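Loading example: each entry is read as two labelled lines plus one structure line.
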Amino acid sequence: MYKEICAKYAPTKDNLIYILHDIQDNHPQHYISTDAVAAVSEYLNLPENHIYGVLTFYSMYSTSPRGKNIIRLCESPPCYIKGSENILRKLKTILGVGVGETTKDGKFTLELCACLGVCGNAPVMMINDDVYGDLSEEKVEEIIEKIKGRN
Amino acid sequence: MKYYRSHVLVGINETSVAAGVHNFLKTLRAELSKSGLSDEINILETGPLGFFGKGICLTVYPDNVNYENLKEEHIPQLVQEHFLKGRPVPSLMLESAGKFSPKLNYNQRIVLRNSGIIDPENIDDYIGAGGYEAWEKALTRMDAKQIVEEVKNSGLRGRGGAGFPAGVKWSFTAPLDAEQKYVVVNADEGEPGTFKDRLIMEGDPHQLLEGIMICARAIGATKAYIYIRGEYKLCIERLQKAIDACKNYGIIGTNIFESGFDLDIQIKIGAGAYVCGEETALIESLEGNRGHPRWKPPFPGVKGLWQAPTVVNNVETLANVPFIISKGAEEFKKYGTPECPGTKVYTILGDVSYPGLCEVDMGSTLRTIINDYAGGMKRGFKFKAALVGGAAGMILSERLLDVKMDLASLNQYSAVLGSGAILVMNEHQSIVDMLWSILRFFRHESCGKCAPCKNGTQQLYRLITKIKKGEGNMDDVELMLSIAETMQQTSFCALGQSPIMAIRSAIDNFRDEFIAITQK
């Protein structure tokens, strides 16, 4: 599987970031495994340590398995002063996990992130590719319930 | 061409998409056709409308009525009353919230002049609004030197934060003899509270492309990359559509307009790192490395991407260029102040009546921006402070409300304009708390390359946490200043050099608050 993804890109170093994005997006657990790193290392003829260096530098990549839905709550100043801490507390309670953890049923991973650029609607979070703004504790509960139902 | 009785502009952006605008439009179209109005009412999907209502927003022309926060259940009423009988529905209008109509100063705009008026996904709309005239002029009627001179004369300064004159930057790269040169667009907008570039790209992607083309021609680059953050899905989609349309029309490609000039523009997607907004870190990231900044000199203008001469410009900077070329530097200088010509796009957030986006002359005061474009303070709240320029900016107090907002004037107060984010705080909010949040941000985003920043951001966070808990004393406050000053002098790049601004401004303007919390 990793080889097929790699083959979509020219074997040059500047494609590393895209290959890693592609591998992660296509993995059911949204992460980049040691096998994947080995495959990319071979394809791009780069040492594995370079790949780990890049992988762990950028916040969008993960080296450990994650849930089906990834929640990224913004903790930057504009969201912070609009009460993102309360939203975080609520999320932790509903999901029963801490930051960086995945729920037992593998449905949700809770993460924090820096500014998402949707500050007009602070506090904001992203779940997978969707942005949810003007969050309140009630709204968060609704959103999570809705996604649970969908899955 | 078809004529319509009424045009309905619908703002499609991250906010309205989240509010379900696509389904809303489907229902609206169905309702219009049910009432037999499909041939009379034109629905145009566009970018930001220039005001910042909640949820789904519409502007109806020629009536010039703005609606906000629309839901599907409002559609029958809207269609029956307004579109059929011509009676606008006051209860759904933007004004109903506070009797405030945001100033839509289209005649004073440069960067956002098409935003919310044309369909950003249709190249013909842009061309119809005078688009690509500047590109044609630059390519067929001007030589590279003239373009650089024109931009230099305009006095356009970088809009990404540092404020370096764009024409001067280009003039370093233009005369170099190199096999390959590059234009790189910095669209990795990550400064907390800033999303002007997102709205510029969502509202008028072609204008940015035209700016890139002119820059490429001026410096002799045949390849351009737009480095954009992965979260900006709609921007990426619209830019790609715009690039494809340009290729289709032969506006970019090989031997453009038979001038012998080739140009290729590609989008490159980032992976989430604030430091990549620093130009050399951005270049490292483009090359497939960790986003660590490089030693300067050599500057990217001489040795940048793959060691080739590279001009890195911010989105807003380049979006100003088509105007300068088509209308001339003198026309551009009519906007703004003599030292700092042109306009500035701001995002206004926090406790104002209408958080939003505006484009005003450089040198407008904070008071004007807050009162005229954001409807003043939210009812019941008093102004306390504004964080201007994001985390790498300053916390300004009421004393500075009437200072002109341009690079030269702010400099006198050792303040910066930064990225154009204005975050307004009310009297109940704590400055210490705000500073804590800023320093937490820096601690997280320090890239770890140089010791002053790596260790300094950790120590600053430790100290402010202690102060916030009420366990600190004034020595801790002074120590923060001293650490941040050392970081300013010794850090490798702008990230480590920045925390001093927020810290110093917070302590200078709100010292009482620090005294109160340390004496608790």
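The longest helix of chain B spans residues 451-468.
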